[in-house]
Amino acid sequence: MTKTNTLPKLTWRWLVANNGETKIPYIDKVAFTQYEDELTQLPEHFTTTFEKLEYGVSKEALEINEKYRNWTNNILVDEDESLDRRYDIKLEGSQYELIDLQNIYLKENAKLTLIYDYESSDNVEFFKNTLFKIKAEKNSHLKLVLIQKLSHEGINLLSIVSDIAENAEVELIEVDLGAKETYTNYKANLLESGAKSTISGAYFVDGERKHDANYHINHIGDHTKSDMLINGALKDKARKRFVGTLDFKTGSHGSEGSEEEFLTLIDEEVKSIALPLLLAAEHDIVGNHAASAGRIDQDMLIYLMSRGLNEKEAKGIVVEAKMVPTIDLIPDEKLKEDIKHFIHEGITK
User: Is the predicted pLDDT of residue 12 greater than 70, yes or no?
Assistant: First the structure.
């Protein structure tokens, strides 16, 4: 078994919360042909930036990504340039393995919106191991939208690391709805004054599936800011582990960070672990963290059912409403509707 998403500060072992675990499947080394490698030359300092950093779901996941990679995609946005790109990826047939590296470099004042929509046919035993390396220079802005609607028979590993310069922002919008097991690890380094990280996430997990997410925000420069809002729902015997860390380093005076996770427990046999962490080596900072989990309000259910809905439909409406703040940030109307339909189908089946 491979340990995943280890806590930055370990807690008591009997809590069984210090890390997740998964079994990496045998890698068949299949080719990925939906998109060709894009090997645009990136500055040397882009590569060296990440050499000494610690990041990723696990060391083994990164080693597999390096050894068996079947897609490399370099994206460079020049100064004052604005760019939109979308990748629709379907894992099925001979295309059931995706082991990819996404290098993203934004120069000063650059703007980039990226959408990745992952899906697959039912019962496809896929393996996905994705690594994003992001460098956002002064006054740049990245909106990264990740939509995961893969089958319930595969493993999804997602590692993201970002270096964010003065007054730049990296905005992550993540909707996670599929996969038998999902492991997400996001590390943002707010390097300079005014750097900003925004995370808006939504997830739905049913059956006996597992969702494990670790978000770590390093406030390094002064007057940096981070916002993290995650809304999720668990059904049947699903399991979830959430770790959110606001790490205020020495020199990060005047910085503000907020992390919140709100979880709806649809059934009694679900299991949830939530670990919001606040680490501070600086005095003049503001850090807010919260995590809550609760059942659907019965009065709300009764009201909706009095309007002609059955119980499953009423629960679906309540859960969908909680995820709307994230879904509404997606800059594609059809994709929004597809996501809402996917969630509704999962809750009401």
Answer: no
Which residue in the block uniquely carries the two structure tokens 């038998």?
Answer: 180
Nearest to 342 by CA among 179, 126, 145: 179
Which candidate, 200, 145, 199, 165, places its Cα nearest to that of 338? 145
Instruction: Choose among 213, 229, 228, 214: nearest CA to 181.
Output: 213
- Token digits for 275? 């670990």
| Encoded tokens for 296 | 């659907």
Name, in order, each residue with C-beta under 8 angstroms of 185's C-beta and a sequence gap of 6 or more: 4, 5, 55, 56, 57, 158, 159, 160, 213, 214, 216
Contact call for residues 208 and 240 (beta carbons, < 8 A): no
Domain boundaries, the chain: 2-299
Task: Give strand ranges (E) for the chain.
Answer: 2-4, 20-22, 71-77, 82-91, 97-106, 111-120, 127-136, 141-149, 155-164, 169-176, 181-190, 196-205, 210-219, 225-234, 239-248, 255-265, 271-280, 285-294
Q: Which residue has the tokens 């060709």?
A: 36
User: 224-269: per-residue pLDDT in tens?
Assistant: 999 999 999 999 999 999 999 999 999 999 999 999 999 999 999 9
User: Is residue 254 exposed (0-12), middle (13-18) or buried (19+ Cβ within 10 Å)?
Assistant: middle
* Number of helices and strands in the chain (H, E): 5, 18
- How many other CB atoms are there within 10 angstroms of residue 18's CB atom? 16
Integer Cα distance of 10 and 16 in angstroms: 10
Query: Could you read off the pLDDT of 52-69 as tens digits, one per residue?
Result: 889 999 999 999 999 999
Nearest to 89 by CA among 133, 154, 25: 154
- H helix or E strand, kind and range, residue 47: helix 44-49
Asked if 208 contacts 237 with a C-beta cutoff of 8 angstroms, the reply is: yes
Q: How far apart are CA 79 and CA 107, in angstroms?
A: 5
Beta bridge partners of 83: 112
Q: From residue 155, how far is each of 127, 192, 305 by CA, in Å?
A: 5, 36, 37
